[in-house]
Amino acid sequence: MYTEKVIEHFRHPHNQGKLPDYSAVGKVGNIVCGDVMWLYIKVDVDEQGREVISDISWETFGCTAAIATSSMVSDLAKGKTIEEAIAITNKDVADELGGLPPVKLHCSALAADALNEAIYNYLTAAGREIPAALERRHAHIADEMERLERRYAAFLESQEEAHKGG
């Protein structure tokens, strides 16, 4: 069912946990399966003056595929410029894991969405222009999160409280 790479990222996830000094966080969820991902990015300026994701981490409440895709998207985005990171797709995430079962492909979309949402929130906080494709992605994510919040309000409140502690 799962590739060896998926199992490896599930058993030994990379970049897991809350980044203490993050620049932005992307919070996403899936209304159907109930998976929730929080992806933290730290953005710095490199020697060429480009904004790069210098560090990244995540916290995910979800299945094997959700954990593995969170781990993989963090590997793919770390060290990338903002523009390069925006270009990372759910297909990239799934392909790097050697594929996902069709019923679990939504997890790769959730991971890419978490990255996009973190970048959107970073650019918004910095007062920067949002690329049109990222704006469209954010609108879709915001709609999905609104439906998730209506359905799982108590659970999401408990997650917010848990994340306040550290």
Describe this structure in words.
The protein has 166 residues and is α+β, with helices and mostly antiparallel strands. It has a single domain (4-165), classed as Sufe protein. Chain: A (Alpha-Beta Complex). The protein contains seven helices and three strands; from the N terminus they run αβββαααααα. Strands 1-2-3 form a three-stranded antiparallel sheet. β1 and β2 form a beta hairpin. The longest helix is centred in the last third of the chain and has 21 residues, at 105-125.
Outline type: globular
User: What CATH architecture label applies?
Assistant: Alpha-Beta Complex
Largest beta-sheet characterization? 3 strands, antiparallel
What Rg do the Cα atoms give?
A: 15 Å
Instruction: Give the low-confidence spans.
Output: none
Q: Count helical runs.
A: 7
Strand order of the largest sheet: 1-2-3
Number of domains: 1
CATH topology: Sufe protein. Chain: A
Strand content: 15-25%
Number of strands: 3
Mean pLDDT, rounded to whole units?
A: 93
- First CA to last CA: what distance? 35 Å
The CATH class is Alpha Beta
Helices and strands, in order, run as HEEEHHHHHH
Helix content: 40-55%
**Secondary structure category:** alpha+beta
